[in-house]
Amino acid sequence: MSAARVRKWLLLVAAVALACAAGVLIRGWVAGDCAVDRGEDVRPPAQPPTPPSVQPPVAQPPAGPHFYKGVEVVCVGIDAHFSKKVPDLNQAVKDAKDVAGALESKYGYKPKLLLNRDATKTAILAALDELDARSPPPEAVVLYFAGHGITFEYAPPNDPVPTRVGYLVPYDADVDLKDTSSPERWAEEAIGMRWLVDRIETMKAGHVVLIADACCSGYLTKRGGVAETPEFVQLLSDPSRKVLAATTQRESAQEGVFTPELLKILGAVDADPLSVTDVFLKLRTAVSKNPNGAKMTPQMSHAGAGDGEFVFVPTRVNKEEVAALAGLVEEYRRTKKVSAAGALVSFRGIGERQQKRQGRQSRLSDVAAALEAEDYRYSASAEAEATRWEG
Fold this sequence. Notes:
- The protein has 391 residues and is of the alpha/beta class.
- Helix content is 39%, strand content 14%.
- Helix 2 packs parallel to helix 7 and helix 7 crosses helix 8.
């Protein structure tokens, strides 16, 4: 090979080498410096996603000591209605929520809420039917209703004597509160007060408490009180049906009176066990002292044949004491003999108050007052008779 041809090959190799070196520099410049010059964000490699924080479980009410084998609560609150001819309320839903909250947090009971659209006639009655269909049924049921109530008189066909009827108004009732010309329509659309009392009488639960914060809710009650029972343990052993109403059957219920006072009693931090009668007496006194409750006279009655008494037992009560009382009650149910209950400090007040009231009931004058009343569910002199209950 000639010297000239060798020089050409050397020049060609050198040119290729220079070209390759230049290419490397250009790629580095494009991938590196140009990225910074264009202002692009050069991020570090992506890290694995941070696992979501584990939220602590929502605190549940303490199981607490339950004297009863299951207490179910149904709280109904209706502010707005399907019918535009039923005025809205302002506090019924809040009251129902507050009652449910207090009975769950302070007593460990199981509440079911039916509010506004959920509080139809079908839903309310179905809630009672569902509890009744359980096997075994709950030992106690508390039904609370906050909403509209109404009573009126009408003359049945071929009967010159007017009949008084009363109704609670569910959400879907297609009625006019100012139109009572059709009792048949009211019976179809609303919940008859007398029918409801008859319904709770037939429920399978050992104790049923109906609390109504509604106008004219006293129509739910009838003349009577706690039957005379010689021993506190016997009082707890027998079944009971109790009705607490915010007013007489002719009074209007002022919002923000009856239920707030009820919550002060049941929701007190240091609340002791209270019978339904204890609650009623405290309520009656508190409502009468409330500036907005001057025209409200809470009512109480029993329904059905049971002469027992339901007791609200807070979860804070000593478990051993509750267990001891439950044992005494079971013993009485088996033997019909009452053992000493002196050691039950938390419950002693209930028995003492009951014994104090016994001498004030079932007088002949009570029978006369009931017969003189236009309806056996209405006390002829509720206000005057109230002083006989104070204890």
